[in-house]
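User: Some background: our group keeps a shared notebook of sequences we're curious about, and every so often someone picks one and asks for a predicted structure to add to the entry. Today it's my turn. The entry only has the sequence so far, pasted here. Could you supply the structure so I can complete it?
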Amino acid sequence: MLFSCITVNAQTSDDIYTEARKEAFENKNYKKAIDLAQKALEMSPDYTELNIFLGRLYTWDKQPEKARMVFEEVMKKNPNETDLYLAYGNLEYWNKNYDKALELTNKGLEKSPQSEELLLLKARILKDSRQFTEANSTLTTLLEINPKNNEARTLSQVIGMTGFKNAVGVYYDYYHFDKRFDDPWHIASVDYTRQGNFGTLTGRVNYANKFAMNAMQFEIESYPRISDVFYTYVNAGVSDDKGIFPEYKAGFSLFANLPKGFEAEGGFRMLSFSGEQTWTYTLSAGKYYKNLWFNLRGYFTPDRNNVGQSYQLTTRYYLGGADEYVSLRLGTGISPDNQNNVLLNETFTYKLKSYNVALEYRTVIKRSYVVYARTSLENQEYAPNTKGNQITTGVGAIKRF
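Assistant: Of course. Here's the predicted structure to add to the notebook entry:
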């Protein structure tokens, strides 16, 4: 009994703090953790870290008023404690008190402007309060500090262009064929995108020229948001059918932003040439790792005898925000998502083989301009057992406002 009493009396506030953390993080027993934290504070009432932890425990145990009392007391005694503003800011953010949460986060950033956790919290607060421009700016700052922050990169992708209500884009692609055609092909596009509460809606016009033959295609494209985890892709298009573009096209995908920088997609694409429809199903998996993004995508086109398969592996190295990267893509087959590929009709009719590699550089100028340049080489079987090379170069610019 004497030994037991000595052991209990020898227990320090740090020892009890450790027990409280175990109850909270391993056992999710917040009430017991609160009791332990209070016991430790009786021994060390000015233990700042422990006081903040008690406030967090009250937050997790859904006792916001008690949490606020603890945080306010700490703020009086230690107003320079950065972790306080993170904990208090999270409390108000989770309770949807966005103005108060933003005020606390900004105070914390005055003390520690390089804090990645505070910057990420601020971006989330701004996003949920629909201040998209400020949210994008905060994420840009964070990614400049640490381009390898996966959470910031994922949130940046979720927000997308929501910092701007409108965008106008112009694009041009030049096609050179070493064997099949003597003259090059030209394809140009212009589009307008509007951001709303539901997501984005884009209207696009594509123009193609081959020799003396012209073709036009009109598209509507949208990325409706379901939640922070799920969003969709919807596309429909029509053409005056000169064999360059499909007469009709449609597409749908469901995307999921998963934990630890993973993402997944599943959907379909439909192309109609001369009244004959081709249905292609697509699956993809992506992963953010530091300032890299990897995506493996497959296209599967069933017919009576087999299933045509096409694959693409894309890697991006981010230099800053979501629109600042260098990209490398390796692939086999033709992608139905490549609306400018002039050989879609032949490929889906005859199941011809194709191998391709593409490079792209994309950057942002003065926050509201996005410009890119890309080039690709495709070795394609344009007739049974007959191959040729297609070299494509393209440029584009987007103005957001």
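Suggested note for the entry: The longest strand covers residues 369-383. The first helix runs from residue 2 to 9.
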